[in-house]
Design brief:
The protein is an alpha/beta fold and 243 residues long. The protein has twelve helices and nine strands. The longest helix is centred in the first third of the chain and has 18 residues. The protein binds zinc ion (ZN).
């Protein structure tokens, strides 16, 4: 059980911003593609590592290979895996006014699909596509129903790309500013399924002015000494106690 003070901290927070990490995605059943076994299988099959396949370099030079990997691994996951209980509890917390904004680098829109609103997707969404030439937007349906492996913009005859940040690319400046402003406003900063030294948390914590940084994570990690409070449990079990 959580101490009463911690529950009250969340319930009485003026403004709560959530940093939602890979742990949230893993609890929903998505395999971590960089795990040894999974990444070994991908490398065996495609001849490149996950990092290489998920990069702007491969998109630009081996677009066909990029889309094979993208369709077989990422689109397959997004079609088969649903947001887990942790996302459902997060949506309930938001509906009862306990959570204001959610910031993530994950691209599957799991929070939105569970009913969350006010989500900042720093790395974009796997549901959004665009023509890099004219900027015309396309939906995931367009990509799924494209007869060719590489979907092409009919106006420009160039490959449509997912509107996500690939490795080697920068987060959109305006989006980064918006996220930083949210964190600056936060009374409570709630870190879910991310280590304190992860990219998401390290890029956001410099903007946090408060002293109620709470981490919920199943695994202990040395970087947690930077947090004000830590709950070691599954994220779903941790969040459930606030409801
Ligand atoms: Zn175009």
């Amino acid at each position: 059980m959580l101490e009463k003070g911690l529950i009250e901290t969340i319930r009485e927070s003026e403004y709560t911003v959530v940093l939602s990490g890979q742990g949230m995605v893993c609890e929903s059943g998505y395999p971590a593609l960089r795990d040894d076994e999974e990444s070994y299988e991908i490398e065996e099959k495609y001849g490149y590592s996950v990092e290489e396949l998920y990069s702007s370099a491969i998109f630009n030079t081996r677009t066909d290979l990029f889309y094979h990997f993208f369709r077989e691994v990422l689109l397959e996951q997004v079609m088969t895996i649903e947001p887990g209980p942790a996302f459902q509890y997060l949506a309930e917390m938001q509906q009862s006014g306990m959570v204001d904004t959610i910031i993530t680098r994950r691209i599957f829109e799991l929070s939105e699909r569970a009913g969350c609103t006010n989500v900042i997707n720093l790395h974009g969404s796997i549901f959004d596509y665009k023509c890099p030439h004219c900027g015309r937007k396309y939906s995931m349906d367009d990509i799924m129903h494209s007869k060719k492996n590489i979907p092409v913009c009919p106006d420009c005859n160039v490959a449509i790309r997912p509107d996500i940040v690939l490795l080697g690319e920068m987060v959109d400046n305006a989006l980064m500013t918006k996220a930083a402003e949210e964190v600056e406003k936060a009374d409570v900063l709630l870190v879910l399924g991310a280590r304190m030294n992860s990219t998401l948390v390290s890029m956001m914590t410099p903007y946090y002015k408060g002293n109620k940084l709470i981490v919920i994570t199943p695994d202990e990690h040395f970087s947690e000494y930077d947090a004000n409070m830590v709950i070691h449990s599954s994220i779903a079990d941790g969040l459930k106690q606030f409801l």
